[in-house]
Design a protein that fits this description.
- The chain is α+β, with helices and mostly antiparallel strands.
- Among the domains are: 113 residues, no CATH class; 62 residues, no CATH class; 78 residues, ATP12-like (2-Layer Sandwich), CATH 3.30.2180; 113 residues, no CATH class; 62 residues, no CATH class; 76 residues, no CATH class.
- The chain is 33% helix and 20% strand.
- The protein contains 25 helices and 32 strands.
- The strands form eleven sheets. It has a seven-stranded mixed beta sheet, with helices on both faces. Strands 7, 8, 9 and 12 form a four-stranded antiparallel beta sheet that branches.
- The longest helix has 19 residues.
Length: 749
């Protein structure tokens, strides 16, 4: 809005004008009516006498003596892009963005506030010369029709404290007050702020004391949005453009020519010199065509390329990182990534900036032990892909931002004519690791009694040396103690207890404490509902758990994974036999970080293999391949098929909506051929007809496996106007499920 006013008014001293309340209300040092009229006419081509926008077609009768017929003024579709630019306060316009259908149905964009458009510029049915308009359209004579937009995230805890009926009360009374507060105050805000601990201590609490505690440690979520593609690497966009162009061509076998002919709109293609383009195989023909189309896309103007492929300007966090087609369901546009982060506690907000800070510190003085460990943690995240703790912050190798509680990757597509925000992925590496390794909280960590294992075998040491490996009752590793320190297992346990007390030489894989341990999918989903409401989407949808499993199916990516227990080396080979993963210093408990928990369990439990290579007979080798690489993916099914569905239904129930199953088109079907017994792939990239032809020769041995494409069922929720208005006004509550207030609760307040 300010951008529009800046173009119309010579200063930011906005005033009330013709019923339109521009904010803030400040008197201008000039006559606003004449100035606005002059500026509007200059910028927009508006003619006060005719009362129209100069760059739009005149309505019937506007230039003659007869009455103006607004019914055939201009098609709403033409005005759609113009309407998207207006999200005005006061009486100027209904907030948000609209599709052409919505423009015709229930939206009135009125610039009568500037004094030039009589009636609605884009009015609802019945308003364009065919009847009266509803209140608020026309000359701004009704109440405001703009959607009220509040903060993205809102606290329930702070207003609940402020609403306490008295200054002093018992802890039990305060807890009961929070429970009865509209919407309830959830555990995440209470625990994160430290107020839960105060209530748990019992006794008397005060309103001012609780408010001071909240202000000391409020729960704050900061969004980082990534958009567009890095201009230094447009490979993905060039390839996407080429794939779109491939649909215009046809590659068919010509018996007369004895080869595969490429045609465009039915006309065979010829190479230089007029020679018919002919190939021995379809695959070679497709590859040559694809390479040429990529080269063509590389010559395309940047604006055209971005518009064509859905790339766009970067968001607040810069360019997107994971737009690669192998990580996304085909068919979407305007791909984005949103990170939900907590404020950094140690240094800068990103690992890149923090590493630079530490480097500058090291140039002036020696780093402290804590700073050195922080630097190593950042290096591990950057170069080894290891998530963990750096200082007091959580670092995720997927993102340079610290403390990413959860992230969402999404794009835009069409479902049942609705502009749909489609969730490609929602994930929380932080809580995934926290669930496996635990959180750094003050509670007791290691379970008694401790166990001691002789870990001497495989290390180079004197014959009388013993390495004691100390683990807790649950088998969690604590520390290693050498025989130069401990003379026996009991002494090793004593040393381990001392190290725990002093927090030294004890490997602590736990992650920093964080809110939303159990309900991060719900938080992320509600944040995406808000995103959809802000960006003109009428529906939200997300993948099934099986689609996520298929996307990350290890058996599609590699042919064999091998682990050398002796050297703790992990290697993965692709179907061509090339090494695609080589990691050293990978103990059994860390294998899952690289290939997934389920595959890691299969690999660790596999039988040892004997090597015939001279000098390597004593190496302990394990491997899995084929069907062993397939995993159940129960975790992904739990998130996408249960948790997100439950969160959506709970959110939508009060609006009379519920989750539906819809279909999306993901492009042409592409198949691979797999051996049913071994699970080994015999090749891919086949059309359905080609795959059937190959399988029919031996259907008992081989089967077709859909790799990509075809219709896919997804979860979907319609976003009603009431839903949209509520989430825009009430925001995402940080303290439980739902809005800051439900409609009934808001009315009762």
């Amino acid at each position: 809005m300010a951008g529009l006013l800046d173009r119309v008014l010579p200063s930011k001293a906005y005033t009330h004008y013709d019923g339109w309340a521009a904010q803030p209300e400040i008197r201008a040092p000039y006559k606003p009516r004449n100035t606005v009229a002059q500026r509007a006419q200059q910028v927009f081509g508006m003619d006060p006498k005719v009362r129209r926008l100069g760059f739009l077609p005149y309505p019937k009768g506007a230039l003659g003596k007869g009455p103006i017929d607004w019914s055939d003024w201009v098609a709403p579709e033409i005005l759609h892009s113009f309407a998207k630019g207006f999200v005005m306060p006061g009486h100027a316009a209904q907030g948000g963005y609209w599709t052409p259908d919505e423009v015709t149905r229930d939206v009135g964009l009125n610039v009568a506030g500037l004094g030039y458009a009589a009636g609605g510029l884009i009015a609802p049915k019945g308003a364009l010369g065919m009847g009266g308009t509803r209140p608020g359209i026309g000359h701004n004579m009704g109440p405001p029709i703009v959607d009220e937009i509040g903060p993205v995230y809102q606290s329930r805890l702070k207003p609940a404290i402020e609403a306490m009926p008295q200054e002093k009360m018992t802890a039990d009374q305060a807890a009961a007050h929070f429970k009865k507060y509209p919407g309830g105050v959830g555990a995440d805000e209470l625990e994160w702020s430290g107020i839960q601990g105060l209530l748990g201590a019992g006794g008397t609490v005060t309103k001012s004391g609780l408010l001071a505690q909240y202000e000391e440690k409020p729960l704050v979520i900061e969004d980082v949005t990534r958009g567009g593609t890095d201009p230094e690497d447009y490979t993905a966009l060039h390839e996407e453009s080429a794939r779109q162009d491939m649909d215009e061509f046809e590659i068919m076998f010509d018996p007369e020519e004895g080869g595969w002919v490429t045609s465009l709109y039915g006309e065979p293609m010829h190479d230089y010199g007029g020679v018919l383009r002919l190939h021995d195989t379809k695959e070679v023909a497709e590859q040559q065509l694809f390479d040429e189309l990529v080269e063509s896309a590389q010559q395309m103007p940047l604006e055209e390329l971005l518009e064509r492929t859905g790339g766009g300007p970067p968001g607040s966090g810069g360019f997107v990182k994971y737009a690669d087609s192998s990580l996304n369901i085909p068919g979407g546009t305007n791909y984005r990534e949103t990170l939900l982060t907590l404020p950094a506690k140690t240094g800068a907000a990103t690992t890149t900036q923090r590493y630079e800070e530490l480097t500058n510190i090291a140039a002036r003085r020696n780093l402290t032990d804590a700073e050195s460990e922080e630097m190593v943690a950042i290096e591990r995240a950057e170069f080894s892909g290891e998530a963990g703790t750096a200082g007091q912050d959580y670092v995720d190798p997927h993102w340079p931002e610290k403390n990413v509680v959860a992230h969402a990757r999404f794009d835009t597509r069409n479902i049942d004519g609705d502009r749909t925000l489609f969730l490609q992925e929602v994930q929380s590496k932080w809580h995934q690791q926290g669930k496996a390794e635990g959180y750094k909280t003050p509670d007791k960590r290691f379970a008694e009694p401790f166990q001691v294992i002789d870990a001497t075998e495989g290390i180079s040491a004197p014959s009388d040396y013993v390495l004691y490996e100390v683990r807790d009752a649950n088998g969690e590793f604590i520390t290693n103690v050498g025989s130069e320190i401990a003379g026996n297992a009991d002494q090793a346990i004593v040393v381990a207890r001392g190290r725990i007390r002093d927090n030294s030489a004890v490997r602590d894989d736990r992650v920093p404490d964080a809110p939303f341990k159990k309900n991060w999918p719900d938080l992320t989903f509600r944040r995406m509902i808000r995103e959809a409401a802000e960006t003109d989407h009428q529906r939200i949808a997300w993948t099934s758990g099986q689609m996520q499993i298929d996307r990350y199916d290890l058996s599609k990516l590699v042919d064999r994974v091998m682990w050398n227990e002796s050297s703790q080396t992990l290697i993965a080979y692709d179907k061509a036999g090339s090494s695609v993963l080589f990691k050293s210093n990978v103990p059994a408990e860390k294998i899952g970080d690289h290939i997934g928990k389920e595959a890691a369990k299969k690999l660790v439990n596999a039988k040892y293999e004997k090597l015939s290579v001279a000098g390597a007979e004593d190496q302990k080798i394990k491997s899995i391949s084929g069907m062993e690489l397939k995993v159940g993916g129960e975790g992904k099914k739990a998130i996408y098929d249960r948790m997100l569905v439950k969160a959506a239904n709970k959110f939508a129930k009060k609006y009379g909506e519920k989750v539906q199953v819809k279909e999306i088109d993901t492009g042409p079907e592409v198949y691979s051929i797999t051996n049913k017994t071994t699970g080994n792939s015999l090749g891919g990239g086949y059309s359905k007809a080609e795959a059937k032809a190959k399988v029919v020769s031996d259907p008992d041995t081989y089967e077709m496996v859909l790799e990509t494409g075809g219709p896919q069922e997804v979860w979907s929720l319609k976003i009603t106007p009431e839903m949209r208005k509520a989430i825009l006004k009430g925001g995402v509550a940080l303290s439980g499920v739902g809005l800051l207030y439900s409609p009934k609760e808001r009315q009762s307040q």
